[in-house]
Amino acid sequence: MTAIVGSVVSVQVGKVAPLGSEAVPSGFVKGTVSGPVMANPLGLSGDAQADRRVHGGPDKAVYCYPFEHYARWREATPQHETLLAPGGFGENLTLVGLTEDEVAIGDVFRIGDAIVQVTQPRQPCFKLALRFGDPRMVRAMVRSGLCGWYLRVRSPGLVAANSVVTLLERPNPDWSIARFHRFSTEGRPTLEEMAAVAALSGLARHWRRAAQEALGAISTAPAD
Questions:
Q1: Which residues touch 66 (CB under 8 Å, ≥6 apart)?
Q2: Are 10 and 32 spatial neighbours (Cβ–Cβ below 8 Å)?
Q3: Calpha distance 197→169 (Å, rounded)
Q4: Which helix or strand (DSSP H or E) is residue 171 part of?
Q5: Is the pLDDT of residue 188 over 90?
Q6: For residue range 28-43, what is the model confidence (pLDDT) as tens digits?
Q7: What is the CA radius of gyration of the chain?
C-alpha cells in the first residue's frame, strides 16, 4: 500500500500566551519553523499546549490542516484574510495533497522520518473564535467540515517543510475524517455506526471508550 500522497508545506510550533480580548492562556498562535523539528509522542519539539483536553497528549500530539482549505476560507471570510495562511488555524503541519475526504481514521503515514497515525478530526472550541475575534468561526468550521485532523506519533522522527507524506497502512478505508466528522456532529448515530466506531483501529481512545459505553448503556436499557 505504500504510496506518496502529499507533502508538508510548513511546520508550526508555539508557546503558551494570552489569547484574545479575554487573555485566555493558549498555544493557538504558532510561528513557522525553518529546518527540521522532532515529532515526539507528546508533540513537536518546541510546541506547548495550555489545555491538553483540547490539544496535546498521545492521541492529539500533532494537528494537521490542508493547505488547500485556506483559499476557500479567504473566499468565504475575506475579513479574516490576514490570518488565513499556513498556521492560521493553529496547526502544527500544513499539508498539501490530503483533505478530510482522503484521510481515514487509523491511517498510518510516514512524514519525514516520523511514523504517525490519524486519530480523530479536530473539534473546534471557543479559542478559534478568540483567535479570529469572531464567534461565528466555530460554527463555520463545524458546518463546513474543513476541520483537519490529529495524529499520534508511533515512531519519533524529524519533520520539515517539503517532507514527503507516504501512506503505509489504511485499516479503516470506509471511515474518512469527513465521515467521522459527520458522525460526531450530525444528529443521532445508528446502532450499527456506534458499533463500527467502537471497533475502529487507531481511533482516539476517548472516542472508542465513549462509543463502547454508549453501546453498553443501550444493551442494558430496559425494554419498553
A1: 94, 95, 96, 98, 99, 100, 146, 148
A2: yes
A3: 18
A4: none
A5: no
A6: 999 999 999 999 999 9
A7: 17
